[in-house]
Known about the structure:
By secondary structure, this protein is mostly beta strands. The chain contains 13 helices and 58 strands. It is globular and about 110 Å long.
Amino acid sequence: MYFILSLSLNAQTLDWENPHVFNINKEDPHATLIPYSSLDKALKTERFSSEFLKILNDNWKFNWVEKPADRPIDFYKESFDDTKWKTIPVPSNWQLQEYGRPIYVNIPYPFEKNPPFIQHDYNPVGSYRYEFTVPKNWDEREIFINFDGVESAFYLWINGNKVGYSQDSRTPAEFNITKYLKPGKNLLAAEVYRWSDGSYLECQDFWRLSGIFRNVYLFSTPKVHIRDFKIVTDLNENYTDANLEITTKLFNYGAEKSENDRIEISLYDGNNKIVQNEVLTTQKSILLHPNDEAVIYLKSKIENPLKWSAEEPNLYTLILKLFDKQNEVTEYLSSKVGFREVEMKNGQLLLNGKPILFKGVDRHEHDPITGHFVTEASMIQDIKLMKQYNINSVRTSHYPNDPRWYELCDEYGIYLIDEANIESHGMGYDPEVTLANKPEWKEAHLDRIKRMYERDKNHASVVIWSMGNEAGDGTNFMAASEWLHQHEKQRPIHYERALLNSHVDLFTPMYDRIWDLEKYAKRYHDRPLILCEYAHAMGNSVGNLQDYWDVIEKYDVLQGGFIWDWVDQGISQTSAKGEKYFAFGGDFGEVKHDANFCLNGLVRADRGVSAKLIEVKKVYQNISFSNWDLKNNLLQIKNKFFFTNLDQFNFNWEIIENGIPIQAGIITDLYLPPQDLKVITIPFKNYTPKPGKEYFLNISATSRSDNSWSKKDHIVAAEQIALPFYEAKIESNDKFTDLKLTENENNISIENKKLNIIFDKKNGTISSYKVNDREFFENGPEPNFWRAPTDNDFGNHLQERCAVWENAGKERKVIDYQVSEVNRGEIQITFNFELAEASSSQSTIYNIFGDGSVSVTNNFHPGKSDLPELPRFGMNMNLLNEFNQVEWYGRGPYENYWDRKTASFIGIYKSTIDELFEFYETPQENSNRTDNRWIIFTNKNDEGIAFVGAPTIDFSASYYTPQDLTLKERGSKHTYELKKNNFINVNIDYKQTGVGGDDSWGARTHNEYTLFPKDYTCSFTIVPITQKKDLENIIN
């Protein structure tokens, strides 16, 4: 069929600069389907194994030019000589095959903005040629070619005949090529334009790449073919029984009329057994004239089918058979069916009657090597990781994903917001400018939304439709909403820019703050709020996530959100020195780019797990533990699942004493229905708390068996509860041995047979610290208020606002000092500092003991009220490189911060300095651990140094100083470019300001996690470790 809208532009207008032209000869959109030759093959629902599908993914002949005028005009002809052309893999993005360069920009267009026109001096064109043969058993069948994704526009020729044209790079371009084929070899030619007028609707925050980047295949059908079908599962009022409604479209491609055809539909369960022995069939035969279509509606009641949800993704297989007048099957089609109902009721979105919560992420299709071509293995890896980390939903930001993604989400259980391929962010939102209000762009908007809907309408996993992203709002979206509502009776419609307007069913803002959510929940009760983007995960981020969910779970009208975003969009590269890294904007020499703003993932580009994701798992977990009753050993458990009973899990508990387990047990067969509470007994034995010891209850829920996404004993939820046992430890007098004090013009020295410590009077620090003649410090502790800015810090201009703190510690001035002997074997030295740049002061008090330990107390006092917040407050020092083993009793094992530590339990952990380092692609603050009772750095002989909190301290340690990690501009350097020092830089802090994460372009850390200028004290004790006994004394 030929499809082209009337032109309002002149007759000379190029197709790829005409908003009225986006499809020429493309087939109408339909559900993803492939015919099979038998019932057995149809039941397997493996499209690419059908004998009526031929995959064309291969190495194709390829030519690339920088501008349309240079393209080979006659390349599509069979006589054209392509022997000198190179080949390119299909699917692929040509920029990642060394043709042109990738461009990363967020909001701007990567070309000169003048819609609908595209610059002619630089608009690369890729010319593809490929020879194929048609299987012999496809004779007398209709043959189609399908391109699942081509960016941004292309023409197609078969055997020198022009077939058609397509835009919309994220939905299939399907053409009927039957009449163009011949026996033997056939020539396919495709001319792909990097940019077209369609690119004005594809201004998403991702790498701007092009080419044939998804599967290309042929498929064949009988002349009379079920070209589309729509499945609706309508549950009754009790959400038990269901009406299965199927609407099919039957088309006659033949030259003669067809009669006496009929369709038969049957439903099979997970064991391929037919359900209820009921077969749906058309009551009368169907008459079809050539190029005619018939719509057939069938309906059946299914008694109490297993329901589909992300928690329990039960699927059935629907088989459609087409019979001819001889009553022979001419076609088998199949589709997975999930019985579920989505509805809006009482101001909530319900799935199977339950007000589910979206514990979601936004996900771009991205592979660090292949770009926008994502393999099935990568999709499965993403889904398994999401499920393992309690993520139940994905927004396909910002376009329909590869068709296989939806099948996998149906199978594994992921709720989807399916988003149309519309974003014109670069045009802005002004009603007079936005394309959403331009009549000439109306049909282009509608076509993209229709094609998304028709392709994906049968997927149980799709529970919300999205009309696009950041494309303004106006009459074009109103028209699209009207069309969607006419065709969709269950799923609600989302579009963030529509806000609370009537053409959307949900309120889905971006980056609303916690207080905004609470304000909405108190005012509105008729429309659920779901954050389509929140908790911007750029770099060291995702602070205060638990605070978000404390509010979300407090109000019925709040139903969750989608973290931006899933994966760092880094592109794998190798430096001239052979160092591997992930490139971001500017690394390919682009003039216009947005640097590292593409690195917002909870996982790295290679799917390495970050500490951010571990925090998400804890916050998103579906079991809570609370209200500990110590007297009776009782604990309250809440099942936050909506469809899962807790009898699927074992509950493992342990009591730890100063980080060491002393009792443990397991609770099995805990029957607790969804959304219920239960108080259980933890059967631990009574015992007498020991002086100086603290106690915690650790409890976790683990899976009792393997499933499709995790192994047996996978932890789905965990909690740590402090037990109120603590008695002060009786202080030992062993440290009080004699000390000798000497002083000269520059130094203060204190020594005995074991200890030799020297203080530099000029700068007020320890210049040498030896125990048993072993030196520990490269540079002794000095006051520090600075952290290397994180991406979020750069976004809110902390590096400028807080600049007075960067060198405040290093440029301190000693005002005076005092030395006194407190007791026999205890000498106190106090240094008073002026922090001139910050108009503040600090005193550092050292108490030196005869056993070699040194207690350190830092007292900070701000000198004026209008000082900015402190990035951190503590001390920075350099240890000798040999002390590269670290053990700590505090929160871990993962990196954690003041506002991101709910997943990090108190315990004893070990690491190396290298392993401690949390890698971010650009240098920034990292690797912190909070609430530490003690930290020990040792060498291979268990000799070293400990820092004991009074009561707790934060610490970080790496081969890089805060200055090494400090960038002048965000994204101006890669971490791999840093040079390791030959010492270990250690921060011992009272605290540092939280990492924040509401957004990365202005939001500051929440007040409750910010070190506002006021008096602070940071105390800890340095303890030398010279033998294993010293180590054991610290641990015990």
